[in-house]
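Final report, Chapter 2: Outcomes

The project's central promise was a pipeline that accepts a single protein chain and returns its three-dimensional structure in a standardized token representation, suitable for archiving and comparison. That pipeline is now operational. To close this chapter, we reproduce one record exactly as it appears in the project archive, with the input sequence first and the structure output second.
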Amino acid sequence: MALSFGTTVGYGQSTNTNGDHECQQAPTESISSLAWAPQQLVQQGKNFLAASSWDKTVRVWEVQMGAGKPASNAFASFTNDQPVFDCSMAPDGRVFFGGGCQTAKMVNLAQPSAAPTQVASHDLPVKCVRYVPDRNFLLTGGWDGMVKVWDCNSPKPGMTLNIGAPVVAMDVTGLMCTVATARSIVCYNLETFREVHRTPPHHTVKEQLRCVANFPDNSGFMVASTEGRAAVMWLSEIGKTKTQTTKNYAFKCHRENTADVFSVNAIAFHPQLGTLATCGSNGGVVIWDKDSKSRIKVFPACRNTIPCGTFDSTGQFFAYALSYDWTKGAAQYNAQLGHKICIKKVTEEQFRPKKR
């Protein structure tokens, strides 16, 4: 069953249409990912935000609430020898990142001047990195179709999982890992490394997958694609036919009409409220309630694509990038729009689920 929760608005008249806080010293080329500090660091008063970029850097800001609105200070910047595609942060302040150099590297925010250390490698570029604090290891997913497990002390992986196709997205919550390729989804139990599910998205999403996000309670996941469509999938329902499933569904989003369809680049769940945000190539951020199948809030769209967006562990900040994602090709690139990282103050009124 495909539902339409309504269309999102098109490009606005300025890049940061919502007037959200902008981090200074942003990357100079396309921004590929954002990662917040885990809760353990935040409890120590260190709410860091990291960003990876095609300009071969990983940049880190320290974020706090100042006078009722977000504020940030540039904390550190690390340089790679190739574009960086993804980054992840550990509770002890280590930052992991991987990209076009076919390796993943590690830096420590306690030693911001130290050179990055290689901790992982693939045969092709590293698309995704995720630190797993519950087991103290690093997961990397590559365009070589492999997901590898690293303890960060050995040059060889502790385990290699064959996905069978280039990894395009990956999410880890607790001990559940969900990996997306362009056409399929694989779920792993990280306690046993057993493959729980391997399935195409069937009737829900037909075009190339772009992002994936686990439900906060690990009962399922969401995926979204380049066709302006997202799918909500419970693990208990996977494998059932279109007529058998009672819960799984898809919905159209980040579309303006049948001709103007935009990629959905990011899905992020609020850590406390359970609602979620989607970010798209139309410059829009939209808030949804998956359980009531309803749209909660549409923020005015920006005049640039949004390649990534994520909530911090406290749920009071939502960070997103304004940076070209190349989904519409080189002809649509406008260098004058630049690259920005914005932080939105989260208010419960805008993000809480609708009453049922």
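Archive annotation: DSSP finds two helices and 29 strands in the chain.
This record, like all others produced under the grant, will remain available to the consortium after the project formally closes.
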